[in-house]
Specification:
The complex is a heterodimer of chains A (476) and B (485). Chain A has 476 residues and is of the alpha+beta class. Chain A is built from 15 helices and 16 strands. An eleven-stranded mixed beta sheet of chain B has the order 1-3-2-4-6-5-10-11-9-7-8, with helices on both faces. Classes of the chains: A alpha+beta (476), B alpha/beta (485). Chains A and B meet through loops of A and helix 11, helix 12 and helix 14 of B.
């Protein structure tokens, strides 16, 4: 029997806003536990939710990027359940009327574009963070109330690779739009995967298994691939897939049961009466979209069309927002677009890799690096010299000129009229060499270049010099 | 010495320096300490005296300057214990003031205490708070209820300890006790006074309430408390008025409706007669009062509809009370045990019943039949009210079918009198309308009241008409007679 995996994803994205979804406590990471808390975040009696406008703007931006229809009336509901990480005993979310409905995004699989449907996107709030010990649990309310969006895909993915690419695209969108940090490792992008398998061509669904707590993009593919195989083996050996929640253990490289799913929980949803429906004007929605920072796709297109980069270089540049931002910064100081791209994708990337750094930690300002690249462009330094200068710049955080003087490299003279003057002078002084050259004696050219260099103490651009010599020799 | 005086009168004395805020506050605290009606959760002695002492120069144009008042204990008060009259919040000291409290403090009124209520404002008898029954001061033998849930605030106002007190009103929790205690009891339009800091019972119905002993005093308090609050998204941006300025200028062209079917269910002949006499007097004085009709079945459905909606909302709104973040800590090996122990010990039987009913109404299999249907019926009732308000400006009714019931006296909860005459005030909560109860008469030395309900945000009209009615009845500044025991 040939099987087909059916995969759907629920992605929670923590929004990067100044304050929380419904309170004025700041959203910041890494602070002392329980210091970034407003009375509402701990559900003190009598506190009331006030909707964070920026969170709504962020949600609209993502909806737009995912081609979703946006509900211009905001409704919030309560999801009721008791849990120690849920301060109010309910979560304010959007049940009946999510802000976004019916969208899609496109991924590329083996050079073919595949469209993955997205069912809904809704806004909600995060819970507090728990730290479990053997006999007690610590609660940190700093996270409680952080704005979240949940993006629910349709069960339209058919492999771990598709799911991974889907998450990569979502991550790119939320990061480029400035909506979130999108860091799976830090939990600002969290992914729950639903996996089932069925006979290929069937229209029914198999028993669904949920995989939670996958904390890196690469594990998504691994977890799903493992899970699909596990389910196949079960069915092939005549056993049944049971409905359960599993987690991915990256050390063992397998999924492990967390709990069986019994009857689904009844969350007793009902409308949140403390927030009356909010009408979003056309202008508000349009402004939210128009003010959205440029997304990866559009940057890539621009790099190719306006800067003349190839697809490969452009794709590399937009693989991380910070890298693309750095490149954008470089282009403000130099128009040598291709050369700049090369430097970022090869030299900068190499340095970061070698030192295990991210671009945020890269010591050279865009202005300094662009200065160096400009010199390469103008042939003031050779590429070998440039690499040497680059290393010195990084070492001592210098600009190109200072690094050169420390290294004792002087810039090549590329002034064509000056070079021409010297070339003519040398030719006049060495008529025999001209004859030798015409007779096809190879050494003559080298001799003439040497003479030019001698006259200029080697400061002259060698390539320009030989080009110029050739031109002049042709005339004689 | 100053017991039982109105805000208006006290203001005059304060401005003329016949009395100081400190003297008023000291007297109020003395009276509070002698309270025998079980009306106080907490007397804010040191806090109140500190505020009163700081008030030196009278503010001529601020009628609340130096006036002592009492706060229902389901309103958050910074650094002052707030229990909601529930054991689950024993020892809870809020870190912030409710907006309505903050506004009154800014107006330099002096809060002197926190008053008892039915546990977490759920109940209409004033008997279910963790301190037990609160008594009606009009019956010094302690045989009668003052009603609830704002029992303590009603009792302290009726007893003349303070000229005004804050209550809350989800079904009739301010307006019903007002009827039993000879008071003005007022709920504004939903959204007129910020609910920030009011412990939520059923937010779609909840409002802050005001108790005073005269209509004008009530308008003074609304002047200081109404308005938009950025902390409460449901607070309205509709401009506020000066509710006192034109209180004597009722426009007699405005029409008053009396719902025949509510009146029909009242069996107490004296009370009914008093109301009809009052209507006649209004007519004689040139007011337009006409009878209108509402389907009896619809009226009889009010209580059930209210109960389903309010219990459903309540079960969720009180889910934060899990013994983890505040209130007494309970032991347990798991979070479930901790929560169960805290809630089992912390809540009284009556509200546990409400939580179960509310939870039941929201369960997947019952939601459509109970919660959604109740919501739909609420909508139908509001539509019917809107129809009446197309032709009329006010709905006028007896606030309750009887004087304050005796403790332990039970009414037939399936009779039309109970279902309709005892519960119709919830119309004002369903539609979020301004509604004011004021005394109409006394029977067996116990007061009973009438209720004026206006259009949304027509607080001005409600006060104007109520002021006229007060002139006709002559019943203002009522204070319970006899010494406190």
């Amino acid at each position: 029997m040939e099987f087909e995996p059916v995969i759907g994803l629920e992605i929670h994205v923590e929004l990067k806003t100044k304050s929380k979804m419904f309170s004025d406590a700041p959203v910041v990471y890494g602070k002392e536990p329980n210091t970034q808390v407003a009375p509402l975040d701990m559900a003190f009696p009598g506190t009331l939710p006030v909707v964070n406008k920026q969170a709504v703007i962020n949600a609209i931006r993502v909806c737009h990027a995912l081609h979703m229809s946006i509900d211009q009336e905001l409704y919030f509901d309560r999801k009721n359940y008791f849990y120690s990480d849920l301060p109010k005993g309910y979560q304010i979310t959007q049940d009946k009327r999510p802000i976004g409905k019916e969208g899609y995004l496109e991924i590329e699989i083996d050079g073919k574009v595949k469209r993955i449907g997205i069912e809904r996107l809704h806004m909600e709030e995060d819970t507090c963070k728990q730290l479990h010990f053997s006999t007690f649990t610590l609660l940190n309310y700093n996270r409680a109330g952080t704005p979240l969006i949940e993006i629910v895909s349709k069960p339209e993915m058919r492999s771990g690779e598709e799911a991974m690419k889907y998450v990569e695209r979502i991550r790119s969108i939320v990061v480029f739009s400035g909506v979130s940090d999108g860091k799976m490792e830090e939990g600002s992008l969290r992914c729950d995967v639903n996996v089932s398998i069925r006979e290929k061509g069937s229209n029914t669904f198999g028993t669904k298994v949920e995989i939670k707590n996958i904390n890196s993009i690469s594990y998504i593919q691994k977890a799903i691939d493992f899970e699909v195989e596990r389910q196949k083996k079960l069915i092939e050996s005549g056993e049944k897939v049971v409905q359960e929640t599993r987690r991915y253990d990256d050390a063992k490289k397998e999924t492990i049961r967390m709990r069986l799913k019994t009857d689904s929980v009844d969350y007793k949803y009902y409308p949140e009466a403390n927030i009356i429906p909010i009408r979003l004007s056309d202008k508000f929605v349009e402004d939210a979209i128009a003010s959205c920072p440029e997304l990866a796709e559009s940057r890539k297109e621009r790099y190719i069309k306006e800067y003349g980069l190839n697809d490969y270089d452009a794709s590399l540049l937009v693989s991380e927002k910070a890298i693309s931002d750095y490149y954008n910064e470089l282009t403000k100081h130099s128009k040598a677009y291709k050369l700049l791209a090369n430097w970022v994708n090869v030299d900068v990337a190499g340095y970061l890799n070698k030192n295990n750094l991210t671009i945020e930690d890269f010591p050279l300002s865009a202005e300094k690096l662009a200065g160096l690249v400009s010199m390469v462009e103008k042939n003031e330094v050779s590429s070998n010299q440039a690499r040497e200068i680059f290393a010195k710049m990084l070492e001592e955080n210098l600009d190109a000129k200072s690094a050169m003087s420390k290294l004792g490299i002087s810039s090549q003279i590329s002034d064509e009229s000056y070079i021409k003057e010297v070339v003519e002078e040398v030719l006049k002084e060495n008529p025999q060499a001209i004859i030798d050259y015409k007779e096809g004696k190879g050494r003559a050219m080298g001799f003439l270049v040497g003479q030019v260099m001698k006259k200029t103490q080697g400061k002259i651009n060698p390539k320009l010099t030989s080009d110029m010599l050739l031109e002049e020799l042709k005339k004689r | 010495m100053y017991r039982g005086l109105s805000i208006e009168k006290l203001h005059e004395l304060l401005v003329n320096k016949k009395v100081t805020p400190l003297e008023l506050t000291k007297e109020a605290i003395e009276l509070a300490k002698k309270d025998s009606n079980n009306a106080f959760e907490y007397i804010m002695e040191s806090e109140a005296l500190a505020i009163a002492e700081s008030l030196k120069e009278p503010e001529v144009n601020n009628p609340l300057w130096g006036i002592p008042f009492v706060i229902k204990d389901n309103m958050s008060t910074k650094d002052v214990p707030t229990t909601g009259s529930s054991n689950i919040l024993r020892g809870y000291v809020p870190v912030f003031d409710a907006t309505v409290v903050a506004k009154l403090k800014e107006a330099h009124a002096v809060p002197i205490g926190k008053s008892t209520l039915d546990e977490l404002a759920m109940g209409g008898t004033g008997t279910s708070g963790h301190l037990g029954t609160t008594y009606n001061p009009f019956d010094r033998s302690h045989t009668r209820l003052v009603g609830g849930s704002s029992c303590g605030s009603a009792a302290v106002t009726a007893d003349g300890i303070v000229p005004f007190a804050l209550g809350s009103d989800t079904g009739d929790s301010t307006r019903k006790p007002a009827s039993y205690a000879g008071l003005v009891g007022f709920k504004p339009t939903w959204g007129r006074i910020s609910r920030y800091g009011l412990f939520p019972f059923a937010p779609s119905l909840d409002t802050v309430g005001i108790f005073t002993r005269s209509v004008k005093d009530c308008a003074y308090v609304l002047n200081a408390t109404a308005g938009r609050d950025e902390k409460d998204m449901t607070s309205s941006v509709v401009p506020v008025h000066d509710y006192v300025k034109d209180i004597e200028k009722f426009d007699k062209k405005r029409k008053i409706a009396v719902i025949q079917e509510i009146l029909d269910t009242i069996t107490d002949k004296d009370i009914k007669k008093a109301f009809l006499d009052n209507i006649n007097k209004l007519k004689e004085s040139g007011f337009t009062v006409e009878f209108v009709h509402m389907d009896t079945k619809m009226l009889a459905s009010l209580f059930a509809t209210y109960f389903v909606i309010s219990c459903a909302e309540a079960t969720s709104n009180n889910a934060n009370l899990d013994g983890i973040k505040f209130g007494p800590l309970s032991k347990g090996d798991t979070y479930e045990e901790v929560m169960k122990n805290a809630r089992t010990k912390g809540f009284g039987e009556l509200i546990k019943r409400r939580f179960i009913i509310g939870s039941f109404a929201l369960m997947k299999e019952n939601k459509e039949e109970l919660f959604v249907r109740a919501q739909r019926n609420r909508r139908a009732v509001v539509d019917k009210l809107n129809e009446i308000y197309k032709e009329y400006d006010f709905i006028y009714a007896l606030a309750a079918p009887s004087i304050a019931p005796k403790i332990g006296e039970s009414s037939d909860r399936l009779s039309d009198e109970y279902l309709i005459a005892d519960n119709h005030l919830v119309l004002g909560n369903f539609a979020g309308l301004p509604s004011l109860t004021l005394p109409l008469g006394l029977k067996d030395n116990m007061p009973f009241g009438v209720n004026v309900m206006g259009k949304a945000f027509d607080e001005v009209g409600v006060f104007q008409l109520s002021y006229e009615i007060e002139k006709i009845t002559g019943l203002k500044d009522l204070v319970a007679k006899g010494e406190q025991k």
